[in-house]
Write a structure and sequence with these properties.
single chain, about 450 residues, alpha/beta, FAD/NAD(P)-binding domain, 9-stranded mixed beta sheet, 12 helices
Length: about 450
């Protein structure tokens, strides 16, 4: 197997080395300092600069723009809310939860609009999101999810097995649900493009500058301290590396593989002409996209969590995970048996204890943050950026009353409980998927128990 393993991601490798921006080499003072040049940090800088061009803004990044999940993800731009709408509604009201869903649907179009207006070419195709079921329990869960989504104002249509296979010829598809509110994009083209736009607007992006401490009005780096009225922590899956944040968001791994460009004959067999973001509804679910150059990129959980919140920084992926993802690919599309896999990589995303994302600002300390998007951040980061803009500028808007604003949840358990818990959870989900695949008619009790215990 001649697979490039790691090296951050295929998406970055395909574009070649990223532009190298200068590191921070002296102390400085700005209005807003943003830590992390992923989509959260860049969107925040983008919208702040648009709204208040005179603000001085510095983004401080340990490696390069898009080094984290923003340059490694599956490229699903979806309207999925990063958290449980039921949970948001219980604490903040049903209308507030509905508003969040409506705003997320709008955010998909907002991202596409900005890309168009700013000339960011990122292979964006709004082909919707198609989630398929290949077992009866999966189908049942999909139908339940459609009823729930309608309740929150997020319409989906259901497809029969035949109609599903007409769109994307997934072997054994029993049915699917489809939402038109979704697009696929090329993550590195998008995040690098956004970084260029932000830099051209006058935001200083300092790369190769690891932040060692964040404190009120100060960001500490090896060669200087940035003083700022507001400091935004936009480090999502890496947040646990800060000593005072080690139990806030669990760094969960997700891994991907990508095929070589497929021959026309394979595409004739597979279909997938509308380039829908494609996923399933297994407990350890997969997500995939058809790329602009005719490949399939497919991802899943792999090794979900490393003891002590260790982060594999350059995306190297265990061989067993690569083999598992290849197996999922060929289960879905048997015509791809023997296909070359060009690249495999992994990244980290942030998971809060209650699986609900948050965005917030503490006016007393000037400390702001956003994250915990549990793998749904490509669209949510845009909403977070606009919300942070309003919070920082002190504007009360429809965005600042959304239920995820200043959402609080408890910390993760200390080790070894955290590692044992997450490992047990994923063993349970894998066992549940196996039971369901071998003919079980209803969702496995193991999975229901795991959902209950994890708070998912
Ligand atoms: C493999 C994978 C697939 C995914 N697929 C999807 C998908 O298809 N759709 C979807 O919606 N979501 C997906 N996600 C999640 C999504 O990519 C993230 O939610 C989103 O990119 C988070 O953006 P962010 O800017 O908050 O964090 P990141 O992109 O991780 O950016 C954080 C930045 O902070 C920097 N940083 C960290 N620590 C420091 C420090 N000490 N000093 C300076 N800088 C620091 C990092 O280098 C990084 O650049 C996926 C994630 C992964 C890993």
């Amino acid at each position: 197997m001649d697979v490039v393993n790691g090296g951050v991601s295929f998406w970055h490798a395909q574009l070649g080395p990223p532009p190298q921006r200068s590191p921070l080499d002296a102390s400085l003072s700005v209005d807003v300092c943003i830590v992390g040049a992923g989509l959260t940090g860049l969107w925040t800088a983008y919208y702040l600069k648009k709204a208040a061009p005179s603000l001085s803004i510095a983004v401080v990044e340990q490696r390069f723009a898009g080094f984290g999940a923003s340059g490694r993800n599956g490229g699903w731009l979806s309207a999925a809310v990063a958290g449980s709408l039921d949970r948001y509604a219980r604490r903040r009201g049903v209308d507030a939860a509905r508003n969040l869903q409506r705003t997320m649907i709008h955010a998909v179009d907002e991202v596409i609009r900005v890309a168009r207006d700013e000339g960011i070419k990122a292979d964006i195709v709004k082909g919707g999101v198609l989630r398929v079921a290949r077992t009866k329990p999966q189908l049942h869960r999909l139908h339940e999810s459609v009823v729930a989504a309608e309740r929150w104002g997020d319409p989906h249509s259901t497809l029969s097995g035949e109609a599903t296979r007409d769109r994307v010829n997934v072997t054994g598809a029993l049915g699917a649900v489809f939402s038109e509110n979704g697009a696929r994009l090329h993550p590195a083209k998008f995040v690098r493009g956004l970084a260029d736009v932000v830099a051209a607007a006058g935001v200083a992006i300092y790369e190769a500058t690891p932040v060692t401490e964040i404190r009120p009005h100060e960001v500490v780096t090896p060669r200087g301290v940035v003083s700022a009225q507001f400091v935004v922590r936009a480090t999502e899956g890496f947040t646990s590396s800060f000593a005072d944040q080690d139990r806030r968001w669990l760094p969960m791994n997700s891994s991907m593989i990508i095929t070589a460009p497929l021959p026309d004959a394979a595409w004739d067999e597979i279909g997938w002409r509308a380039c829908e973001a494609l996923g399933d509804s297994a407990h350890t679910f997969m997500y995939a996209q058809r790329t602009a150059d005719g490949r399939i990129a497919i991802g899943g959980r792999g090794v979900p969590y490393r003891y002590g919140s260790r982060i594999d920084r350059d995306g190297e992926t265990p061989l067993v995970t690569i083999a598992e993802l290849r197996q999922v690919l060929t289960d879905f599309f048997p015509v791809l048996r023997g296909v070359s896999i060009d690249h495999a990589w992994s990244g980290v995303l942030g998971v809060p204890r209650d699986w609900c994302a948050t965005v917030g600002l503490d006016r007393a300390t000037g400390l702001a943050m956003a994250g915990g998007y549990v793998g749904h951040g490509v669209t949510a980061t845009n909403l977070a950026g606009r919300t942070l803009r309003d919070l920082i500028l002190g504007d009360d808007t429809d965005l600042t009353t959304l239920p995820w604003v200043n959402w609080r949840t408890r910390a993760w358990e200390p080790e070894p409980l955290r590692w044992i818990g997450v490992r047990a959870l994923y063993l349970a989900y894998r066992a549940a998927d196996r039971a369901e695949a071998s003919g079980r008619a209803t969702t496995s009790h193991i999975a229901r128990a795991a959902d209950f215990i994890s708070g998912r």
